[in-house]
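Let's sit down with a protein and look at its sequence and fold side by side. Once you have written the record down, we can walk along the chain together.
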Amino acid sequence: MRRMRLFTSVIVMLIMLAAGAPASAQQALEKNTVTLGIGGKIQLPYLAVNIAQHRGFFKEEGLTVEFNEFQGGSNSLQALIGGSVDFVSGAYEHTLYLQARGQTITSVALQNNSSAL
């Protein structure tokens, strides 16, 4: 549960940063609804995001997260680069792949001492 809260906090901070939200929680978010690209919502690597949505962690922070499901991570990245999603939940190596192609995106990584599977 503690890791889930940490993961959700990281996601919320990233969303607030990208949405241009002020640091003060007392001020309203600039963008309350964000679109998250995800490569197959029912897959195990996305469990934390699904639990965060199910438990209402995003709503607690005043956010509505709309999930856009794609066939895989590379399709969700194309949507991010094209501007049809605001964020992507995916593997870190996609960030490196895009950098090798001259496209820079901001990445937030969550690391822990347990297996993702």
